[in-house]
What does this fold into?
Amino acid sequence: MGVSSIDHLRVLVADERVDRLDQIAAVLRVLGHEVVAELTDVAGVARATKRERPDVAIVGVGEEKEHALKLISEIVHQAACPVIVDIDAEDPAFVDEAATRGVFAYVKHGGRDEIKSALEIVLRRYAEFTRVHGALGRQAIIEQAKGILMERHGLSARDAFESLRQHARNTNQTVYDVAEAVTLSYSLFRSSPTGED
It folds into this structure.
């Protein structure tokens, strides 16, 4: 998702209070976004997140801080989208705990301008996070494939990478695609059906 998609987002809204759900949803609709789910219970968050695949989630926070933290954890656990907290009063301890659970931003009972700004900032941060996380994940797969080739063929790290690169060129694939194939197939061939190497 790019930052340019800010014009129309699919947003999941969760809060323990129905009146706050309605307020946040109304602001989002004024901003031109689609509210794909309005939830008050933690149990429904996982299902709705999987089903709706929202671009962003906003969790309202009132007196029941633990409830809000559970909502945040469930959304982040699904790794579906960035989360914004809409909090009713300054609470640095809560904001710190929410951040450790994966929240990207917070607003203090945000109105139209505050939520709009938070969405823009969060989408930029999330795009950067996704890019970095993806790059680290790709590098980890390449390193794992090099390790497999080093173990199986007695190659140096440099020669193992060169082997991946050469195969990628010969098959018109990326080094990552070849490395992924090596790591996926490795588990099939590392031991015999009887359990002996």
